[in-house]
Structures
1.
Amino acid sequence: MAEKVFPAIAIAGIGQSTVINTENGKRVWPIDVDAKKLALKVVIPFALSVITRCDCGFSKAIYKGFSEQVEGLRLDDDGNEVHELKVERFFNSFKDCTEKEKKYIKRMLPVDKIATETGEENFYFFTYNSFGNTDKVVRELDEFIGNVMKQRNTDKVNLVPVSLGGTIATAYMNRHGHRGHVNRVVGVVPAFDGSCLAVKLISGSFSEFAEDIIPGELKKLCSLLTEKTRGKLVDGIFDALRDTVLLRSSVGWGAIPHADYKKLSAKYKKSEKLDKICEENFRIRNDFHGFIEKQRENGSEFFSLCGYGLPMEKIFRRDNRHSDGIVDTSSCSMGAICTDLNEEVDVSTSAIRDRVWFYKGMEHEGAAKNDHLLRLCALLLKDNTITSVNDDENFKQFN
């Protein structure tokens, strides 16, 4: 008798969910910039800055204008959404989605390749506000899992966190893993311990990378500004996102690696309620070995498929550590030593050292095009035959 296939639920990455402000019907994520409105606010200070060769309120106008552009994502001091937001969701299995829904999901994740072993009727896609409240997202995921188990008449599911979805998966398992509803968590380039990208977004300056950040179609126009003003322009945009959204987002704080969290948390004070959520998420990341042992006792196993051998993208780079360009390899692997690109990854320190596979030179987005990785993911979700990196010679730990 064939082993039962548990339904798999993919937990979307940061750019894979669409969020709508129901008050005005506008899309707030991914950000849909109203270029005309923004231009009207900055045209006069821009002209003055060009004429005088100094910043005549241009960077302040950019900050204010972009703050208004991300206003729909604004959170209150406790990390709750200020506006009535609706996340576009997919409540049916991939097989039962409409053609329009399937097209969207496949653009985010190659479900058709992953579901080759599980069947499309056993694959679901969970979306959420990537800049929202972790407590709310966990509640939504818990409800989603309950509905899937009811639909498929099962008492267990598998989770497939993608990128930022890794932080959501750990938060969910920390709170509800004891229920025993999750058989496996199979991460695809998962940010289990966040990313130094998030550190840069909260505390970094981007002025020195203005030439890399300013879109090509605007470079000629921005070249009329001084180099210093161009730098302030870029910082104004990122500062607006930080001040309006990130500093109050427990999902965002959950993406801060544990090694950086305490220092940043002390620098940017939070409300008591927000701090409580963030501290709970930090405790998970600060002790992955204890966390994984607890999940094993609950009957759940964690696996991870990640990239290595690449530095972080230039504007987010802090050192020479291994990454896939977006997420640190140490984060994907729950603690492998990946501090120097000139040295091999030391997986012995990982909390999941015999259940993590590495793909050299694979960029973050490249996972969706890596047939070897997708095949392994499918087999891990099909049944419990593969329990470690030693079980199938076709899937060596380092690829």
Note: Strands lie at 8-11, 19-21, 26-29, 85-87, 123-126, 157-161, 182-188, 301-308, 356-360.
2.
Amino acid sequence: MKSLFPFLLFFSFNTVFGQMTTDQTAQFIKDKMNAGEFPAIYAVLSQEFQKQVPATDFEQFSGGLMQAMGKIQSIKPQKPNEYIVKGDKKTFKMHLYVDKGKIEGLQFLPYSEKLKEKSITSNPLQTDLDKQIDAFASPFMQQAATMGMSIGIIRDGKTYFYNYGETQKGNKTLPTQNTLFEIGSISKTFTGSLLALAVLEKKISLDDEINKYLPKDIPKMVFNGKPIRIKHLSNHTSGLPRMPEDFFQLKGFDEQNPYKNYTDKELFEYLKKLKLTREPEKQLEYSNLGVGLLGVILERVYKKSYEELIKEKIALPLEMKDTHLKTSENQFTRFAKGYNEANEINSNWDFQALAAAGAIRSTVSDMLLYTQAQISTNKQNLQNAFNLAQTTTYSAKEEIGLGWFKMKKDANTIFWHNGGTGGYRSFMAFDKNKKVGVVILTNASEGPDNVGIQMMEWLLKN
């Protein structure tokens, strides 16, 4: 095999993908590489590049890179045209050059980073559980792109809280179980649960065509005679793109707060012009657009806002007093500052039409109440809804219910989701049989997924 280093490619995207920015191109590379869709990448290479590198060599190169790196967890900008690519096995530095939507250069090089000093923590380091949590958390917190972290654990019918780092750079103030964070896409599991409640209340059916709940002037959302149905929006099989193509061109678009101006009006205008490219339920393709649209549909069904539905149907019954979309002045005093990939304070994210995809803010205390209720609750209507939301609706390379991803570990089934906004990352997982759960909320750009999975695996064995 040819050497992987330097891994230098030149290729361009065709008009299907539009004129993507460098950051959008980096995300495209991450998604396609993780999916193993090397032929799909090769299909959009420039003719000049394809003349230089046959498809078999390109796929061998890409496969070798992924074998060395493992699944890509994140691609984060370090400086102009430079990204840190973190894989399960190894981290790389990626140089990426894009001009007018075309990649002019792409290079992968090995990368290692200096570790920070050990973070302050509330962990007493007394029990085996304390020591194991620290063994997973401390190395994570020594990475450059971390700030603060709140951890919640469910084990043997008890809850445990551990906190690391700072709520704001340099303030030496630990987060607590009542510190507020943006939970990002874990919001999608709330949306799936709202959908399940609506089904049980006979307000909606999973097999309903989505056009039934949309303005009449939106054309039928169908491809090859197969319509998009309600369940497809929740399990990411609708065929809708990850984001509306016009999202980043919206007047007043703000990279630090990108969703704040995207209203129902923009969403419906986009749907009027949208041309689907594949049949629903053909494959799973993660879509903020799809789940955001589901939230709008639920608002139209109930004639209430997404936030009202979250509070009325989930937060208040479970006594989750700090789970919301719009933060009060008093609550803001407990909000951890969020830090982006450049380790700078990022604006909090505000949502309108796509709120159901990632707008919820919460604390690790509240999220542990939510986790416990997903495992078991005496609120029968919620228990029935959570059970329905956890039921598999699509299974191929990945298995998913209504928002919940499912991972098999030996004889156990881990339900999980993660999340990320401009300055926050989150992870949540639980196993119903062993009755264990993990919630991790952070206020920086390094994702805690691997830490959370390690904790879950330990809890399942001990």
Note: The chain has two domains: 7-110, 184-461.
3.
Amino acid sequence: MNFISTRGICKDEVSSAYAIKTGLAPDGGLYMPTDIPSLEVGELRELSKMTYPERAARIIGKFLTDYTEDELLEDALGAYSGDKFGAHPAPVSKVDGGRYILELWHGPTCAFKDMALQIMPRLFVRALKKTGEDRTALILVATSGDTGKAALEGYRDVDGTKIQVFYPTDGVSRVQKLQMQTQEGKNVCVKAIVGNFDDAQNGVKRIFSDAAMKQSLGEAGVFLSSANSINFGRLVPQIVYYVSAYCDMVSTGEIEFGDRIDVCVPTGNFGNIFAAYIAKLMGLPIERLVCASNKNDVLTEFLTSGVYNRTRPFFATISPSMDILISSNLERLLYITLGQEKTREYMEKLKDEGKYTLSTEDFATIREHFVGYSADEDETRAMISKLYKEKNCLIDTHTAVAVVAQEKYARAEKAERKILIASTASPYKFARDVYTSIFGNENAPDDLESLEKLASQTGTQIPTPLASLLTKAPRHTDIIELGGMDKAVADFAKA
């Protein structure tokens, strides 16, 4: 299977290895497969009897056809080993009635990004070999919190690579910041920037499109690539856990093969929910995709009105991984539903005018699959408290946004299908906000004290990777202005 750009200016088809190696297409578009492979009920029955690594190898292999079955299984077994993820990398737990939570935070950095970023570096290294690449790959990452640490951990000391992460200095939680600041490895670099996530993401995209920068790095034997979900190598492993969750729900008797379910995802850059959409297009019995937004509800507005407007106020919230106004993977949805020409037109309008409005017909096409609901800060806090006190279910701030959206969806549309809610981070990654939501602000502990206080009050355990932060000293403490990103990249590439 080959890959093409979402924008169609560059018409060349490339292999999956090449798409993973380069990340972005030359015309600024995102790579997508030329076809979506199918997934029949009979194959779902087979998958239900497999382990998670076996499921991952099978699903990923449908897209990365220039990788062998043995290669993918070896990579999946290494990525999703028991010492990294425990007995099951992505278990499903029942909340009540028809609500289920897909727990995606059992990996080494306690966030769903591990599900992709533990296997992606393995796929990336193979891509370098398959394409005959002998230069050093510099992985550039903009993060709103979780991607940065997961990418750093995944690419740490991987041969043939360097990784540099930029994050908004005041736009991540204290725990997220410490995770990045204490990162070990000889090939890693972390910089905080003065600005928000969109500033960091725009800076990285600008560097990718800078011809002079590329030439200068090339002369030093370095080329740029990405670990953000704009890279299809990051997106394809996310398809796996939706298929796996469906199989698990069948295996436990919660549904039968062929039963249709809804899926609700807390959404920032649109990659996670888009992976669920691809699973649906493959044939997984998903009916509606509920896109959950926080106070930065640009996606809710889009899925309600057909207007995407990034020129709106930006809010720093207690669910910082969703504090995004430019959802890059939405471009993939435009492409797959509307085609290259319309995608290019809409993306040009977004660049030039800061917004675009779908035609009535185009909007109706997208609404066949997606709905959007949002949660403000008070609703998010109230849901954390409600689920813990009523269901003994401890969730983080992002998952709480999704549960609020799920309840609004159920009321507004009288939805009766069983629904799978993606839980994207351990509650301990946002321990202070979770603690104060449940127990109040009086004598509220600081971010690190909250880890122990939350464990003590709820009788749960601090995940080992987060408990270790209590004794680690920061190593990466630089804060730079936006204008300093180019120099920071050049200096690190040549170091």
Note: Residues 308 and 468 are 41 Å apart (CA to CA).
4.
Amino acid sequence: MRGQTKAWSEREVGLIVANHMFMLAADMRGEPVNKSEQRRILKIQLDNRSDGSIEFKHQNLSAALVSMGLPYIKGYKPRCNYQHLLLDEVTDYLAQHPNYLNELAKAPVADPLQPSLDSDIRIEDVFVPPPDLIEFPSQPQKPWLTKRVVKIDFARRDANNRGLGKLGEKFVVDVEKRRLTGTGRRDLAKKIEWVSDSIGDGLGYDILSFNETDDSERLIEVKTTGLGRFFPFYVSKTELRCSEDMCHAYHLYRVFEFSSSPKLFVLEGALSKSCHLEPTQYQARAGQMGTDD
């Protein structure tokens, strides 16, 4: 059996996890990382692994981190079919470095400031295709048994960061004005309304814009992160229902990499058709069903 085809040992996985987490921390701080040099150093410690095998395992690690709701290194696109040992080793690493996630949360990438759309950015370069849906391996979710949990929910931090949310919405307002103006529809650009700012949250969308071809409305919900294109986000019950009831007009703009070179992709129509939706919270009222007083 060739060395690069055999399963990675626990020792090897521990080594690449430590290396990956080192690079992730530097990436989140905005510091340059020489991935080739890091791979060369790591390769010496591994059991005859090829460069391709090491790169693939880093991509597996990105997928594992995303499945745990954690940031990932932008240069390593998530790829699934990873060993469950990866999840165990990441969890062990976090247990051994209890301040690691707090340091990531303080990093500039996790709390970006980007006040407006750079005038030098071409509007066609801002829009990118949506990512392919990643099917994560099934895994037991029983923290009450393992007593090992991820203490920082980065997607929730994005959702609760009102400053980031407003900056992202303002960014999209600027994008939409430039998009419509660039198609010769300055009249429609003037009619754009930032409804979450003028009316308030709770409508199920943030911005009222328009389609340049037929003047029809475009209801835009904005979700912003400083992290990568594959990072998950939260949607509310109202947003989900609005996307279903107004599927002909609904657009979710997912703004990502906001601290460096902000881009966005668009999900049109009902979110249940374009997203994997996982319930995370329930509203509860005390009382048993089907019992008499």
Note: The radius of gyration is 22 Å.
